[in-house]
């Protein structure tokens, strides 16, 4: 099977509108989370907003694609480039606005213009048009595991020789009244900030943003002398089949995804230098994820958590995690777990930036409904 490498990254988050800005914010322990009240009918809560008002999905995606292409030194049209762009919320903000429009003050339904453009797959189709691709277009949706699922699907297309290049990742603009109200109803939202794995963690903080990667076969990357962030070594994808939003208490399906990923990557737990955790700062998720890590990995493995800086970008969070982990591989520097002051669990959390020779890492995403995604990356074996 073909080796798959990452040659370009576009990233935007509450920390910054470029990969470098967000990375520097991580290293210096900053957070993009602030108290905000974007909707007058809802109370003020902490949010990871990119600007003063909620972002629009299509605009974010165009920005990210342009940034990824520029970083990878590619110029459209890219006719034979696969497109795998996911989102868990998609155009929900558009649909909520359309629902309001359907009944005016006179109670009469109104004509909804261009509603077809807001169907779940249309954001991926817009990316295909933006880059001039006439190849495979996929639009995965796997809740908070969407980002890693998308990168895994694109990796498989290249590993199996179907494509030599793919653009993959996930984008999320989830700050809508319904999303906020839904998470509040579940009791999942924090009241002051995001504190992953902390004794005093309160819950998740919604954030917006995304990350899009350029994936290529190692042969194509070498042929065009591309900059390489790292190599995608393998992935694991499983489902709990247990509960609509709670993870399976023993973590057995998440463990299966990790073991599947390690096997496909030719790795053992002892080979892993660091793990970018899902780390949502909810009571249940952090507890189970910590148990899984303690059960499978040696105590010295370094633990990263970045949602204290960016907020939880839902379906895009795994793609952001992979981008940050690749940056850590490239820079041989591990960023601190922002928001973690008093760990509840006995793991090797990174609390200050560390410069260290890292070679291999894992990224975890454990989504609502029990969708588990794990990706392994390493220094390129060229």
From TrEMBL:
Keywords: Transferase. The keyword Nucleotide-binding does not apply. GO terms for molecular function: 3-oxoacyl-[acyl-carrier-protein] synthase activity. The keyword Transferase applies. It comes from the Bacteria. One of its GO terms (biological process) is fatty acid biosynthetic process. Residues 1-379 form the Ketosynthase family 3 (KS3) domain. Belongs to the thiolase-like superfamily. Beta-ketoacyl-ACP synthases family. NCBIfam families: PRK05952.1. This is Beta-ketoacyl synthase.
């Amino acid at each position: 099977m073909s080796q798959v490498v990452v040659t370009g990254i576009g990233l935007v988050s509450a920390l910054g509108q470029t990969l470098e800005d967000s990375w520097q914010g991580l290293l210096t322990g900053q957070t993009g989370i602030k108290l905000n009240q974007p909707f007058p009918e809802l109370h003020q809560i902490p949010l990871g907003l990119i600007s003063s008002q909620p972002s629009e999905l299509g605009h974010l995606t165009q920005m990210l694609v342009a940034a990824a292409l520029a970083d990878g030194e590619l110029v459209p049209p890219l006719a034979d480039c696969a497109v795998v762009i996911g989102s868990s919320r998609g155009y929900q903000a558009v649909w909520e606005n359309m629902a309001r429009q359907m009944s005016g003050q006179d109670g009469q339904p109104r004509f909804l213009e261009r509603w077809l453009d807001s169907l779940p797959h249309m954001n991926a189709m817009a990316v295909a048009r933006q880059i001039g691709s006439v190849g495979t277009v996929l639009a995965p949706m796997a809740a908070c595991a969407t980002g890693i699922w998308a990168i895994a699907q694109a990796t498989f297309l290249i590993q199996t020789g179907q494509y030599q290049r793919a653009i993959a990742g996930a984008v999320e603009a989830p700050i809508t009244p319904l999303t906020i109200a839904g998470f509040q109803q579940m009791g999942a939202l924090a009241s002051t900030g995001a504190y992953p794995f902390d004794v005093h963690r309160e819950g998740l903080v919604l954030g917006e943003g995304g990350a899009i990667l350029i994936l290529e076969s190692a042969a194509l990357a070498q042929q065009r002398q591309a900059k390489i962030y790292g190599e995608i070594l393998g992935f694991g994808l499983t489902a709990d089949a247990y509960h609509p939003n709670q993870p399976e208490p023993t973590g057995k399906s998440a463990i299966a995804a990790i073991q599947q990923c390690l096997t496909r990557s030719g790795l053992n737990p002892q080979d892993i230098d660091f793990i970018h955790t899902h780390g949502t700062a909810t009571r249940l998720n952090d507890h189970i994820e910590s148990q899984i890590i303690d059960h499978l990995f040696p105590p010295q493995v370094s633990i990263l958590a970045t949602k204290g800086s960016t907020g939880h970008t839902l379906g895009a969070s795994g793609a952001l995690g992979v981008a940050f982990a690749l940056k850590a591989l490239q820079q041989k520097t591990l960023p601190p777990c922002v928001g973690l002051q008093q760990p509840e669990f006995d793991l090797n959390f990174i609390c200050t930036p560390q410069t260290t020779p890292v070679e291999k890492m894992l990224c975890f995403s454990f989504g609502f409904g029990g969708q588990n995604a794990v990706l392994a990356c390493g220094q390129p074996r060229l």
